[in-house]
Amino acid sequence: MSSYQGVIVSDPWLQSQFTQVELRTLKSKFLSVRTQNGRVTGGDLPPVFAKLKAFSEMFNEDEIKTILGESNNDMGEEIDFEAFLRAFLDLQGRATAKSGGSKSSFLKATTTTVHHAINESEKASYVAHINSYLAEDKFLKNFLPIDPATNALFDLAKNGVLLCKLINVAVPGTIDERAINTKKVLNPWERNENHTLCLNSAKAIGCTVVNIGTQDLVEGRPHLVLGLISQIIKIQLLADLNLKKTPQLVELVDDSNDVEELLGLPPEKVLLKWMNFHLKKVGYEKQVTNFSSDLKDGEAYAYLLNALAPEHSTPSTLDTKDPTERANMVLQQAEKLDCKRYLTPKDIVEGSPNLNLAFVAQIFQHRNGLTTDSKKMSFAEMMTDDAQTSREERCFRLWINSLGVAMYVNNLFEDVRNGWVLLEVLDKISPGSVNWKHANKPPIKMPFKKVENCNQVIKIGKELNFSLVNVAGNDVVQGNKKLILAFLWQLMRFSMLQLLKNLRSHSQGKEITDADILNWANNKVKKAGRTSQMDSFKDKNLSNGIFFLELLSAVEPRVVNWSLVTKGETDEDKKLNATYIISVARKLGCSIFLLPEDVIEINMIFFTRSYGNKQAIVNTAENGVILTLVNQKMMLTLTASIMYWSLQQQVAESEDGEVPDESCVSPKEGENETALAGEVSSLAIDDSVSDTALSPHVKNEEIPKDNGSEEQSPKIEEKDGNE
């Protein structure tokens, strides 16, 4: 598959100045100009570079033209891609000089060069983690243990198997291991498949991978590989730092308001809150605010372990005056709790933030010291969302973070209430739509400032033809979960359809509808000689997974191993197929955030009838109008993601083998051209917001008009075009 090949530059030095993500982004720009004009000249570059965010704040188009003209006497002469890259670097150097920084520091922030250094202590700790957790893996045990003193870690990561396995350790079941290519010798295509599966799965568990491409992993670039491993391990270690997994955490707070605050904290902050809770109980007077300088002297660790494991405590830990000696005693005490050694005494004394966080998380996992107050725990369970809302929150949160917004979203419902994140997302999917002069940047203390942001969010939504009825910015500020989820679905559906519209050059501006996606999928499967068809995105037969596997096979015949596919007749078989579908789609290049439950789940939609001023749930046996529907929005986004990938291949083929990898291009301010409407992840979010669509077998008059169920928002009407 051509789209998986890295962008190759004949000059090794020139190639070393960019990551593969950056090369693909710039290649897409270059090809866009060439497609439009038939060739690329020096005179074409100023308007292209002026739209790049890196330069737009430093130069206008005329200034760029002057700078490029200094090194190019004939701006009308045709240039190749390497000349395009050199012009970019030249302008980049000027921008750095103008900003007062050094070229090396600028490159360190934006490209992959020799300036990147790795932390050997962190590397050794992550190697120890891998050696411990993957020691019994059937494939990897022949390559383990890894020697941290060598580059064996980066060499082993080059085929993608290690990283995929590590993701499954962090969040079990994320990847169907049947989809991983595990032959002893993998060809380049198979290696890239593994890395594509890895990166899309990493995004699906919350990793930030916007600066990493498959070719970077194939080459085993140390700082990128280590950075990804660090994120994966961190997610594993912090997995229990929430009320759903550990309801005992409610002991850290006193009242309901504090519980709401706890729900909105990122796991690192919860860990600090837990640590300070125990330190306060044993009389430690300082407040630990970070995992670095506040832990350097080892005193906080000594007090914490004395509180959690008094049977292993010794006064000498606090009596010693040497921080290194105290750190060593702390680690010895922790080992008695079976805590793995993620760091050395030197790491504690030097204040290594990543390793200290890992160590504190290990202590929490082995002994959290919290009680099981039944009243508080039952209250905490009431505060957490139901399973469906939790899945919806997870999907939207991961999708937003995958867009590369500046503010990382830890808790969707809390983090969007000030409107800033939603404005960032709107600016990503509809560049230029946000008036930043009227936006208020966090931290925002005044409530009316939050309302101003959210009012602009709603205003833009209406301009994008979202169906918003009686919705005001204050609804978002108040954290109305149903309205937030429904608004985000429309936001993502808009992004999804825009991406498809931009790729379908033959559409000539025609809007893409749900029906277009449905017809495309059915035609694709039919042309491949398969018999499956879907009547609509709410076709309950889709839950067995066969249609989607046939669709994946139709767009890339070799990607599905049919010997692994079940008939999907039982719930267990359906789940096996669903798990395989998700991994195969990610392996192909689709960035999706679905869970197997989202694929196989049947939505039971309860309708209410009004009796005077009262409403009652319609009983199945008595009234017979409870409908069994698959989640049509999830089916729509999955199909659209596959369609987007397939159309990308057609674009690549139309460029005579050149690859404008739109999936890796980030939208820039004021730009709305092909490939800049968003990342491929924009297609992938499953919205599990309950669907208002009705089964074709139920007549309209059978459904009460004043539906008061949770399946229909009273304030937001959602347009699902394929009714």
TrEMBL record:
One example of a Gene Ontology biological process annotation: actin filament network formation
Localization in the cell: Cytoplasm, Cytoskeleton
SUPFAM superfamilies reported in the protein's UniProt record: Calponin-homology domain, CH-domain, EF-hand
Basic and acidic residues: compositionally biased ranges: 698-723
Gene Ontology cellular-component annotations: actin filament; actin filament bundle; cytoplasm
Key word Calcium present: yes
GO terms assigned for molecular function: actin filament binding; metal ion binding
Region (Disordered): 655-674, 691-723
Coiled-coil ranges (or none): none
Matches recorded under InterPro entries: Actinin_actin-bd_CS, CH_dom, CH_dom_sf, EF-hand-dom_pair, Fimbrin/Plastin
Record's keyword terms, sorted: Actin-binding, Calcium, Cytoplasm, Cytoskeleton, Metal-binding, Repeat
The keyword Magnesium is assigned to this record: no
CDD domains the UniProt entry points to: CH_AtFIM_like_rpt1 (cd21293), CH_AtFIM_like_rpt2 (cd21296), CH_AtFIM_like_rpt3 (cd21299)
UniProt domain Calponin-homology (CH): residue ranges: 120-237, 265-368, 390-496, 511-622
PANTHER family: FIMBRIN-5, FIMBRIN/PLASTIN
Subunit record text: Interacts with F-actin.
Name assigned to this protein: Fimbrin-like protein 2
